[in-house]
Design brief:
This protein is of the alpha/beta class and about 170 residues long. The chain has ten helices and five strands.
């Protein structure tokens, strides 16, 4: 079980469907940069999002760890953010995953592409849920429920994406 570095998206989305615990089961420890913690917990709490409380609890209980990036990493992340038109949070997260040689959890397409260019393994909310199904941590019905619930919370998927996820879930469940 290799620890992973997470961007805000998978933390928010898995917490929204009450499946944040899957990260610990699949990866053990999850590391985030301070800016991700601020985005997910501080801003989420300020806006009254219930998922922010679940992530905060995971931080308090040590299932998610905040890593303070070195000044060199922040300097490099700032340059990367400007060059690639990323947020500083995303560029710090990417460079932390690279420095730690750990998989990156993100739902952002550009960040995923850049991570793969750096040779970093990439997971997203859906690959986490599908892997949880594969190793029998969840049932196929939970994939369908997550699609519905996240769709209601503005994590919209195209009909093609839904079909791809459902087909993968059906293959894994059989």
């Amino acid at each position: 079980m290799l620890p992973a570095v997470s961007d805000a998206g998978p933390l928010i989305h898995l917490a929204q469907v009450n499946r944040l615990h899957l990260l610990e089961r699949l990866f053990g420890k999850i590391a985030i940069v301070l800016l991700v913690g601020h985005e997910v917990v501080d801003e989420g709490m300020r806006l009254g999002y219930p998922d922010a409380i679940l992530v905060k609890d995971a931080l308090v209980n040590g299932r998610i760890t905040v890593v303070t990036p070195s000044s060199d990493l922040v300097r490099r992340a700032t340059k990367l953010a400007k060059r690639e038109k990323l947020s500083l949070s995303d560029s710090e997260t990417l460079l932390l995953a690279k420095r730690l040689s750990q998989p990156l959890l993100t739902d952002e397409r550009l960040l995923s592409v850049l991570a793969r260019m750096y040779g970093i393994e990439v997971w997203n909310t859906w690959t986490v849920l599908l892997e949880a199904l594969r190793v029998r941590l969840i049932e196929k019905t939970e994939i369908h429920a997550a699609i519905t619930e996240l769709g209601e919370k503005r994590h919209k998927l195209s009909s093609g994406q839904i079909k791809e996820i459902v087909d993968a879930a059906n293959r894994l469940a059989s």
